[in-house]
């Protein structure tokens, strides 16, 4: 089962309609996909990954293996309420705290800042493409996500360290993401990410050639009235190698109120006789406009 891959270069060509249809299908049927030719500088992406790995080796690795979790794994056996991961979180928008995080080198801070500047453009582009496929104004998601200072953007940087007993603990337990659009820069060699698809867990392969892995969060499912899905996923602990995960969340602002886009909601609280009266007049017209007309009936027009 091949994961959908959206080639952004095709969105500027005669193949645009095919690429847009693939994106719609990926959001609707899968809830996750990969994107390539997204325009982010590959050298910058490589630099971010290299600097994060260096930071882990210098500042996080020793602390992790000396923490209670590895000791608990040896003593207690199977662990169900903890994740085998070493992480830190960076806020980018509306304000950044990257230079305030203790231990991060200036080179890493600058690389992350530069990467996020480019990544946010990709996230906004994706939001506009989703809106187009949903039949919404292209700025609908961005505006819905915006508080007084715009959408909220943050990054969870995680290393899933080598685990001596991957049969006893998860790297990250099963969950869906609470937010909007998640863009993942992940390891090129070590696997572990799995998504639940058609009744079984599907292994997400490491990303080659700096492809980005994208998944849908709960707020996009709500906004799209269930048309686009957030999907349960997890990270398996691995015995061989550390897995790198740099997941950036393009989320609503804390004060943003998210609800299904009115255009995507079916008519509700409508007397069947009133619908029949409308139906008799426009029976042979398309169903979509008929539903739109039915919505106005529920509003008393």
UniProtKB/TrEMBL annotation:
InterPro entries in the cross-refs: DIOX_N, IPNS-like_FE2OG_OXY, IPNS-like_sf, Oxoglu/Fe-dep_dioxygenase_dom, Plant_2OG-oxidoreductases
Associated pathway: Alkene biosynthesis; ethylene biosynthesis via S-adenosyl-L-methionine; ethylene from S-adenosyl-L-methionine: step 2/2
UniProt keyword list: Ethylene biosynthesis, Iron, Metal-binding, Oxidoreductase, Vitamin C
Keyword Oxidoreductase appears in the UniProt entry: yes
Reactions performed catalytically: 1-aminocyclopropane-1-carboxylate + L-ascorbate + O2 = ethene + L-dehydroascorbate + hydrogen cyanide + CO2 + 2 H2O
Family, per entry: Belongs to the iron/ascorbate-dependent oxidoreductase family.
Protein name per UniProt: aminocyclopropanecarboxylate oxidase
Source organism of the structure: Anisodus acutangulus
Organismal lineage: Eukaryota, Viridiplantae, Streptophyta, Embryophyta, Tracheophyta
